[in-house]
Structures are given as C-alpha cells and as structure tokens.
Request: fold
Amino acid sequence: MNAPLYNAEILRLAAEIPHAERLPDPMGSSEKRSAICGSRVTVDVDLDEAGRVGAVGMLVRACALGQASSSLLAGAAVGRTPGELAEARDALAAWLAGSGDAPDWPGLGVFEPARAHSARHPSIRLAFEAAAEAAAKARDR
Reply:
C-alpha cells in the first residue's frame, strides 16, 4: 500500500514554519514560484562574519507540501554556507526525480510518498531554491 501524500507530519510541519517573517534589511533575498500550482516562497538571508547563514526570514504562500518543505528548510538553514544550501537544493531535486540519494537534510524523508507525483516536486523545491539563491546573493554582495 502506498503511503499517503499528505500525512500528519506534513501537516504539522506546514502549520509550524520557523522564521516565518521577512528580515527587515536582508543581505540576500529571492522569491520562487511554481508555475504548476502558484505556490510562492520568498527567503531572506543574512550571513555572519564566517560566511554562514546567521538569520533567515520567509514569506510562504504555498500548498501544504511547499509549507512543510519551507519549515524543514528554515529549521536547519542557520549555520549553513551558501554552498551547502546549493548542494541541498541540487540533492533534493535529484532525489525527487529518482536520480539521487536522499538529501542530507533533517526531515526530508517525509516527502518519500511525493516522489511518485512529479507535479508536486516544484512546490517542494521552492524554499530550497530560494534559500540557495538568496544566500548566493548575500555572499556576492
């Protein structure tokens, strides 16, 4: 039997997004949208003096899968480098597409049932795409 696409953990994550407010003057910011479903995620990033994410802020207007992914991203982004965020973005995309191992990011296994639903992949990737781009902008600033 297939696991349900929307389960209690997905819904819990969607309801509890950390850092769910925009930063007042971010070093880097990026908004990503899914053309398939209209989900939208904006991520703001400040880097610390070591070049790691020191603060993250988000505005999430997405389906439950996009909200859950945003929650997982925000919960573990602080302390990561822009390169680590880019690696997580790429690993998530490959894993969802069936061409890579599960990403080394806390909690992403919750999306295992969504791997068979390619139309859901863009909303799951939004937060990771926006965070990687925002961190790169902050680094290059």
